[in-house]
Write a structure and sequence with these properties.
The chain is of the alpha/beta class. The chain contains 10 helices and 9 strands. Helix 1 packs parallel to helix 2. The termini are close together. Bound molecules: L-Erythrulose and manganese (II) ion.
Amino acid sequence: MKLGIVVASENALPSAFAVFRGIEKSAEIIHRLGYDGMELALKESDEITHDELRAILKKNSLQVSAISTGQVFAARGLMFTDSDKERRAELWKSFTGFVDLASEFGGLVNVGRVRGSIGKRSKEEAEGLFLDLMGQVADYAEKRGVTIILEPVNRYEIDYINSVDQGAELVRKMDRPNFALMPDVFHMNIEDAHIGETLIRNREMVKYVHLADTNRLSCGDGHMDWDDIFSALGKINYNGWCSVECFPVPDAITAAERTVKFLRERYI
Ligand code: LER
Ligand code: MN
């Protein structure tokens, strides 16, 4: 397993769930603390160029774990369940850009809150809109060796795909080899009856994992059953990324340091 941590650009809004802000300036710290990679939480695919990113990674011996896209929803209000033609075209443009970036760096693009909500419509209507545009993005990604990873998110943030089992059902409907699941144990603690058993049940689809404790603080600072989580990941021979998405509390460096110490001593 490899350990990553979420980084957004310097000007990201408070609604961006990132531990660090400033890709270039945090890379050295992240490497020094003992992480293997950075998950880039982007609002737009042109926030960083391929050349800039390649240089930062090389200089700091880091990899990109994945590109995550929560800010496309939180800061720009775009979502795959939206029926508006222009906003769908904007999403297509951003996501093909994210896929192009991921085709060189990490090979994974996340779909969290940007999948969108159902709202007052029927689930079928919203899901039809999601499947149509997401299917096109997944086909574009497949040709470029990129996998789209769907992140179930708890009910207090979005009303569509909250539990990992609901995510698995949507992955089956999408029916693409490069469309998989990205469980976040913070959301699973709210939505899934049993974290370890759920990970084992959906083992074929788990391609990436987000980590934070039950209170979204550093791993080890809440009451998450980490033994259960890592024993399940061990049982399914999970070999992918675990990426830390905790609050930068009391500050980013302390949170990242507490987490890496806790996880490296016990599990990764
Ligand atoms: C949001 O709570 C979250 O976990 C992000 O990774 C997805 O947008
Ligand atoms: Mn997450």
